[in-house]
Amino acid sequence: MSLIGQTQTTHQAQERTPPVRAGSALTDALTDTLTDNLADTLESHAAAWTVLSQLLGSIPADDVLDRVRDPQLLETWPLGLSDPATRRGLRLWARSRERGEAASTVEPDYRRVFHGPGRVPAPPYESVHVGVDGLVFDAETVAVRSFYRRFGLEVARVNRDPDDHVSPELELLATLAVRALDVIDELEAPSRDGDPAVPPLVVDLVQGIGAFLDDHVLAWVPRFGELLSEYAQTDFVAGLGHLLVGTLRQSADVFASPVTNP
What we know:
Blueprint: E1 3-5, H1 10-15, H2 25-29, H3 36-57, H4 62-68, H5 71-75, H6 84-98, H7 103-115, H8 126-130, H9 139-150, E2 153-155, H10 166-186, H11 200-231, H12 235-255
Antiparallel strand pairs: 1-2
């Protein structure tokens, strides 16, 4: 399950995007000039979101398992090892490799936690977790579809696959981060102090990441990750759940609006 572009160009879609709220640690820090820190932050989060999106979008084959459990990758996770859930997830992936968990072992665990039979331990759809009726293709699905279209995107099999599956939701975050990086890379005109000026498009994309985290991803995916790690019967799937929790906790610290108590 993945996102594809609609017929309009990225810039046409972006021009029609209404301003979204600011207020995250990163958007508050955006000034008149770009910094290396902004690009590094976008790149590292995009890498983590992409890995998780791909692993949650399809059952990994043996070559994919070998690649993501490579000891060097486990030591150089894009967001570092500061989060305890991330460390736990990576340890489980290392143990999965040591135990020789193959695709033939991981596949039935994926199918069981995502699809059943019987009670589904970790449904991968936003509407099931936060909707009033707990059904797919509900109001939350429509809201997510609307958000994708603001940025010229839609799921590859629209009206057949629910738009609010966890994989395309994470892919949307990664896509916006990569678009912002592309704009930064293309900058040529320096500002008066010699540093590139922050284009409004970069600000809009970063704010879009924060808004999608606030309104959709953080409302259910951390709990979904907890359910994955709780009900998994393989180290690989359990590790995936922990990594999801840790990654989104770090993403929330950077991009999401802070929670304020009344």
